[in-house]
């Protein structure tokens, strides 16, 4: 009898411990869920089919559409809107008045750690008159971009293309990036920089304020566009342009130094630039001859000079606009 009583007490003690452990685990889970709960203001309108991540903050007078997906730790400030088939990555900030996406076919994808400024319009319908209502159109934005107030970035004009923005770009106030543009990484566009449709911008470029770029132009890496420039033709890599219409004004020397180009590389580029664009007064060679000679010298090499030659040569390919004008300054 004593053994049976002892066994009964042991079973009761085990069950009691199990209940306490289960209760403690349930309380911990509840606390964790509470910590990850998103805040949605009562004055916000969030469709029940929208997908909202953890730790999301949605302020008053915001609207979130049925097909929207908001990543973890995003902040939607008062009066901002996420519409249509739009995906917002983690830790993004959408400022007051900004509009993301549109209720049209297609999709807007925005990566992580992006800041969307006040009253920006991102992923809205393009302004291309060739766009046909009902066609799908797309915009894809990478990570760590800061897109400031009143910027507009449009979706593509057709389903077989897309507007693309890379990573780590600073796009200042009132800039415009039109349909089917392709923007690389680590670019800085000053206020009121305007890109028409199908413009290609490579990496690490800079623009001063009030720059206008014609449709289908290519802007090469590490180039600089001076304030007020009207760019109607391609800007090769490493170069600087200014004026209306924009002309080549030499190499972007300051930009090259800031981006880690060695003194030797800069000197090589300067020598190559002078050879092509600044021939001696008694030189009888044409631009094509000088470019071909430099191209022959850099064949099979992988140096900044070879990349510059490649950029110039590609600008004269089929469907391209050629390079900006240059003056034949004598040495």
UniProtKB/TrEMBL annotation:
Alphabetical list of SUPFAM superfamilies matching this protein: Trimeric LpxA-like enzymes (SSF51161)
Annotated Gene Ontology cellular component terms: membrane; mitochondrion
GO molecular-function terms, A-Z: acyl-[acyl-carrier-protein]-UDP-N-acetylglucosamine O-acyltransferase activity
Gene Ontology biological process terms, A to Z: lipid A biosynthetic process; lipid X metabolic process
Keywords associated with the record: Acyltransferase, Lipid A biosynthesis, Lipid biosynthesis, Lipid metabolism, Transferase
Pfam families in alphabetical order: Acetyltransf_11 (PF13720), Hexapep (PF00132)
Domain annotation UDP N-acetylglucosamine O-acyltransferase C-terminal: ranges: 234-324
NCBIfam families: PRK05289.1
Protein name stated in the entry: UDP N-acetylglucosamine O-acyltransferase C-terminal domain-containing protein
Name of the encoding gene: LOC102720108
């Amino acid at each position: 009898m004593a053994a049976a009583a002892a066994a009964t007490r042991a079973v009761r003690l085990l069950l009691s411990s199990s209940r306490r452990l289960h209760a403690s685990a349930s309380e911990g889970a509840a606390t964790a869920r509470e910590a990850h709960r998103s805040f949605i203001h009562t004055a916000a309108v969030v469709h029940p089919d929208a997908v909202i991540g953890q730790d999301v903050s949605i302020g008053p007078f915001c609207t979130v559409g049925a097909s929207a997906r908001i990543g973890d730790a995003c902040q939607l400030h008062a009066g901002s809107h996420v519409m249509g088939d739009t995906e917002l990555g983690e830790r993004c900030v959408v400022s007051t008045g900004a509009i993301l996406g549109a209720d049209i076919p297609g999709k807007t994808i925005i990566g992580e750690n992006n800041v969307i400024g006040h009253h920006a319009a991102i992923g809205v319908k393009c302004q291309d008159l060739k766009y046909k209502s009902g066609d799908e159109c797309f915009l894809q934005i990478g990570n760590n971009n800061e897109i400031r107030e009143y910027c507009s970035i449009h979706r593509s004009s057709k389903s077989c293309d897309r507007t693309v923005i890379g990573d780590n770009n600073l796009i200042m106030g009132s800039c415009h990036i039109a349909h089917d543009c392709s923007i690389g990484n680590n670019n800085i566009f000053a206020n009121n920089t305007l890109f028409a449709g199908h413009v290609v911008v490579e990496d690490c470029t800079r623009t001063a304020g009030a720059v206008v770029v014609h449709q289908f132009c290519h802007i090469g890496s590490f180039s600089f566009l001076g304030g007020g420039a009207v760019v109607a033709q391609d800007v090769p890599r490493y170069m600087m342009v200014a004026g209306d219409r924009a002309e080549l004004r030499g190499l972007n020397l300051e930009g090259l130094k800031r981006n880690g180009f060695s003194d030797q590389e800069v000197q090589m580029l300067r020598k190559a630039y002078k050879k092509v664009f600044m021939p001696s007064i008694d030189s009888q060679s044409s631009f094509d001859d000088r470019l071909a000679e430099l191209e022959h010298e850099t064949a099979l090499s992988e140096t900044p000079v070879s990349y510059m030659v490649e950029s110039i040569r590609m600008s004269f390919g089929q469907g391209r606009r050629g390079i900006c004008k240059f003056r034949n300054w004598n040495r």
